[in-house]
Amino acid sequence: MSNFPNQPGGMPPVPPMPPMPGGQQPASGMATGSMVLGIIALVIAFGFFWIPVLPQILAIVGVVLGYMAKRAGNTGGAATAGIVMSIIALAWGLTFFIACAACAACATNPAFWF
Questions:
Q1: With 90 as the cut, is the pLDDT of residue 21 above it?
Q2: What is the pTM of this model?
Q3: For the stretch 16-53, what's the b/e string if a residue is b when 16 or more beta carbons lie within 10 angstroms of its beta carbon?
Q4: Can you tell me the distance from the alpha carbon of 84 to that of 67, in angstroms, rounded to the nearest whole number?
Q5: Distance between CA atoms of 96 and 99, rounded to whole angstroms?
Q6: 37 contacts 65 by C-beta, under 8 angstroms
Q7: How is residue 3 annotated by DSSP?
Q8: Which is nearest to 38 in space by CA: 72, 78, 97, 68?
Q9: pLDDT tier, 53 (very low <50, low <70, confident <90, very high otherwise)
Q10: DSSP letter string over 29-93?
């Protein structure tokens, strides 16, 4: 006869696993939104030069969302990636915008013509 009445001749049931130390980080829509906006801003800033202001707007919103996600306690990589990509897109977009404005100013000033 077995010591376990519900398990005739078998082993006792295995207890459930205890939770992992540190726990699971809560999902953050702000971190994901920051990363998505950073990716879109990078693609537009590096690929579609005919859209002059949209990457800067998306990058600023991406940076703000990333920092808000970090303040909310999300220490994962999505918020950091969103901040980094948004800053790169903002820097590249502003550099390109300033360069285009300088070229347009030179093209309209007869003193700079050859």
A1: no
A2: 0.69
A3: eeeeeeeeeeeebebbbbbbbbbbbbbebbeeeeeeee
A4: 11
A5: 5
A6: yes
A7: S
A8: 78
A9: confident
A10: HHHHHHHHHHHHHHHHHHH-TT--SHHHHHHHHHHHHHHHHHHTT--SHHHHHHHHHHHHHHHHH
